[in-house]
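Blinded run. Sample ID left blank on purpose so nobody reads anything into the name before looking at the predicted structure. Input follows.
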Amino acid sequence: MQAGRGARRAALMLGAVVAAVSSAAGAACPPRYEVTAIIEGPDCGEPWGTAHIAPWGMNDRGDVVGWFCCTVGYDHAFVWYNEGDGEGTFVEIPMPPGEYYSRAYDINNDRYVTGWAEITGSGYGLSGFLYDGQDTTIIEPLPGEIGAEPQAINDNLDIVGTCGGDRAFLYRDQAMIDLGPKLPGEKSEGCDCNDQGVVSGWSGPTQFEARAFLLDGHAVTEFGPIPGGVSSEANALNNLGQFCGQGLLLEQGDYVLHALYWNGLEMIDLGVLPGRNFSHGRDLNDAGIVVGDSTVGCCNQGLAFVWSDGIMWDLNKLTETGDIGLYYARAINASGQVLCQGAICGQPVGVVLGRLEYLCGDVDGDGSVGVLDLLIVLSEWGKDGSCADLNLDGIVDAVDLLLVLEHWGSK
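Blinded prediction complete.
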């Protein structure tokens, strides 16, 4: 009788495996990450305590830029120079006399930083800046515009951004270039610039009708909306000409934003994390790995995600974070490090994640995939929260068994 029940159970499992083959064809082991650095704001003294911090950009060295504030409305640009082993030097970026507040958005591999500041008495409102590690140069806006807001800098010191909130610019060789006349839309925003000098962003009559664009010299490529949607924006551009961003779609009578990815051939809707209806693609690297956040509604607290192998993963589930929540993934560099906005007990911090190498299917951690891993999956069948849940979908099932079989014999 026992043998009969065992045979029936094996047959049922085999049937489940066969039934799941088609649905599990795209299954993959998720990437795994570890926290390699936590960046905290400076001590503001009494009564404020530790400053809130907003990390935003990161280079291939692992240096980080952003801003911190001790009180609401008083933001100060910073750069955190990575020294390895989770250590770094936190520097407030100096501004000319009269600086009221400032934000740093990007840093290149030579450690030049760009962002914007409000300079009292400048007459420009927001002014752009370039910081070389010692001196800060103010970037004046286009003629007739109030304010310059740089967003990105490449390794050739090209800076892109927006003047007046609706005119894309390129700052090259210490000169401002108005990109608006080159673009098809009445309004435009420059969002990124790769090392080949190609600019990405959006243009259109309004942001609601935005179209992603790539500008290479005088040649403009305009893209359609996200599949099934009404708009597209190109937030970040890699050196292969691929970009990520987001686009508007109409779902059940309401407009939502979904992260998108242009892989050089087609535009892909990256979707949202479970239980969420909005997502934003913030950055990508040359491997085509996209990071961003997924929220409920446009302005609520997000969950940081990484998109790879055609799947959007919640970074909180891929990382042993302890008490740290990962809310927004802002940047990813060439080595796969991810910069997140996080919090420890409600205190905002910057979190740098490093990608871990591990053997998919090695449930018992002995360095190979074989019989013991198969037996663990079978013994944990149907359970949630188990180490045998290889694809992190909340249950040990045929998909996890197939992943073991797929990597059988690997070491």
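Unblinding after everyone has recorded impressions. Residues 2-20 form the longest helix (19 residues).
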